[in-house]
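Recap quiz, item 2
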Amino acid sequence: MSILIDKDTRVLVQGITGREGLFHASKMLDYGSQVVAGVTPGKGGDWVLDGKVPVFDTVERALDATGANCSVLFVPAKFAGDAMLEAGDAGVPLVICITEGVPIQDMMKVRSYLDQEGVRLVGPNCPGLLTPGGSKAGIIPGRIADPGSIGVVSRSGTLTYEVLYALQQHGFGVTTCVGIGGDPINGTRFTDVLQMFEDDHHTEAVVMIGEIGGAEEERAADFISSSMTKPVVGFIAGQSAPPGKRMGHAGAIIEAGSGMAADKIAALQSAGVRVAEHPEAIPELLN
Amino acid sequence: MKLHEYQSKQLFAKHGVPIPRGEVAETPAEARAIAERLGGKVAVKSQVLVGGRGKAGGIRLAKTPEEAEQIAAAIFELEIKGLPVRKILVDEAAQVSSEIYLGVTNDRTEGSPVLIASAEGGVEIEEVARTHPDRIARAWVDPLIGLRDYQARNLAAAMELPRQHWSEFSQMARGLFDTYWNSDATLAEINPLVITKQGQLLALDGKIVIDDNALFRHPELEQLRDLDEEAPSEREARGHGLSYVKLDGNIGCMVNGAGLAMATMDVIMGLGGEPANFLDIGGGADAEKVAAAIQIILADPEVKSMMFNIFGGITRCDEVARGILMALEQVPREVYLVTRLVGTNEELGRQILADARMDTASSLVEAAEMVIEAAKMGVTE
């Protein structure tokens, strides 16, 4: 079992005729995801990926024709805010924005609006979702995770893959892996995903991968100590990062003395989370 | 992207925020001419993109145009936290009665702008937050509605600002918020906002940081960029689509992905090594990007050894290994290099590198130990 997506999820890809969109749509199809539609304004009526996926001009038309219930966005950053709103207004309940570099002001408006409309947004600047053996909605490499009972949630991309792979090497399988993204303002937060894993009967333990910047790990620590019964293993990247410097991700920056790795680690530890010293040490903490 | 004080204040003024009369000088003679035009006492202020200008002697008062010229000459000689002084703002000196802080920034947790005010102006707001958290008032702004008039009044009331200043203060708060919103800023602050002895409110100092991701809709702001803000190596990396931050250590790192790059530095530091940089080459590892990354890392004379840490997911490890070999044909490397390849086809990838007589590792800790040892011993190829 899983959270957010499973084998029945009907995936729509916004920006499907772009290089990234087309490439990853094909990988999702290969994985067994039901990619039922693509949207690129001006390309409606085309078919892509050997005629397997119809392209529509608007999300509304794609939904009418295919009943998609999850949209994955590969739309360029300039247009991504509008594309997220289009998906939400058309009635897509789960919107996953892979795009990096969306302006913060756009994200403040989009998140505020989609929250009011009850639309779940994952990302932006995220690798999306993977339910091993079920479905993939995003760009997480499918072959590095097997089905199992560990829930994974992370702000990162390749660091998440590293952890998934380490889990696989140690014989641990995964219910769902959720990449929530490395931007300062994103849709779904750690606490949202932790709640879902807590409620999911098949998830037995959770791996949470955070990094410097912001206070979401501290909020997660509060949530874990007050509301979680399942064990959580954590890792926080950026202990060696200097203050005031953005470490790749727009959200990974120590500002005005807050957002430091040491504070996040201390908060998680005091909430009973076992925090790994490095990513390879995570599987042994699950034993 | 950070804006200078004079640029910030000019943007404020466009949005109706009152600022002191003043002009920018690039020579001591110009500073003198400006002081003559302004008449009376002036503030001579270095324009560099770091905090602590005052403490470094970069902000001084001058009573006469002659003194302004002398002070400007001295300030142009300064290097403030490693940055040269290329411009000086000469402002009419204000007769200050009291100082306030007023700023607006993004609250990451709330996902909305937050307006922050404090009667403790003139010092860093973080310092006030530590010492007098009760003297800070905040108003969160709904991004779909914008600032409401009563929110500005609430802040004035919370600071116990005398009532005769409320209307002027509200206009300044509105002007500051509009500046922030219309220029896609992540921070806009007036510190200090002063009340003069004549009873006027004035933005004496200002700071704006623009969201780099939104510069595409503000070409006029992009032109204000000060190239001194970034190290030349960081700028060059950005041109190649690489994310690079120079640090003080001697172990060069090249990693795909920002989180993994941080984790790699952490492991090196945890084992007693000192990373020379953060470098994210992004997805995959095509030869061209790897070559550019190696050049940027080796341009740092401190670098004694190098580590590549690449996770092969969508791009398989054997493809990554071939990319690395192609890159190394283009750029010679003078220092020790260990490559850690993990993920799909990792054995094959490591074999390809081993056949080319390169050191490889499968675990992050093992690779870090090898690269630290090499840096200590000064091992060369």
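Chain A has a mean pLDDT of 96.
Chain A touches chain B through 63 residues (CB under 8 Å).
End of item.
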